[in-house]
Amino acid sequence: MDREPPMLRKLSNRQLSLEACRDCVDEAFMRVLSKAALGDLDEGVKLAAYVRRTARNLALDNLRADRRLDLMNGADLEASLSVLPETATEVDVLNDLVIPAIEAMPVSERRHVAHLQSQGLTDMEIAAALGVGAARVHRERYNAVLDLRRALAEFIRHRHQKKPHLRKER
After folding, report:
1. What whole-number distance in Å separates Cα of residue 23 and Cα of residue 21?
2. Tens of pLDDT along 48-85?
3. Which alpha helices (H) appear in the chain, and where do they start and end?
4. Contact 121, 129 (CB under 8 A)
5. Is pLDDT at 25 greater than 60 in this prediction?
6. Cβ(32)–Cβ(57) under 8 Å?
7. DSSP secondary structure code for residue 43 in this structure
8. Each residue of 74-120: pLDDT tens digit?
């Protein structure tokens, strides 16, 4: 238990304080001890390794929580919340955003593929309904997704947007 906090600090690339690492080790020890007292551990479990793994998992959870808080403190959160209605429970992504974007697409096979896909049809069912091959359905769906990404760009979180592909000049 004395050696593990500095190791966790090193594992976290010094993003967690030594005190936070000690807390992770203490919590891991208490969890494993409780589990052992209840008889929930398998026979032959190496307790030291089990405590170490639990402590490392807790440290990683702390790092993930810190990253989420950092993201939430950014200006991106305010910008993304400004486009949503007053209560986030009112947003039905499919009916309020995607279906209107599909209907705004020009009438084409691409639009039909996107509409049938949004209704939950499989590729084979879409191909049969349109009388085309599966490869064509894949190609049209891919292009429809690109069109929808462009149309719904203001609703897509910044880190989930595709980067524009730049062509090299010859």
Report:
1. 5
2. 888 889 988 888 888 777 665 554 444 444 444 444 44
3. 4-11, 18-38, 47-72, 75-82, 99-104, 109-118, 123-130, 134-151
4. yes
5. yes
6. no
7. T
8. 444 444 444 444 444 455 777 777 788 888 888 888 888 888 888 88
Phi and psi torsions of 27, nearest 5°: -65, -40
Choose among 57, 69, 47: nearest CA to 12: 57
Buried b (16+ CB within 10 A) or exposed e, 125-157: ebbeeeebeeeebeebbeebeebbeebeeeeee
Task: Give the list of residues 6+ apart from residue 62 with CB closer than 8 angstroms, or none.
Answer: 16, 20, 24
Q: What is the pTM of this model?
A: 0.40
Closest CA to 109 of 98, 101, 117: 117
Cβ-based neighbour number of residue 109 at 10 Å: 15
| Structural tokens at position 13 | 């690339």
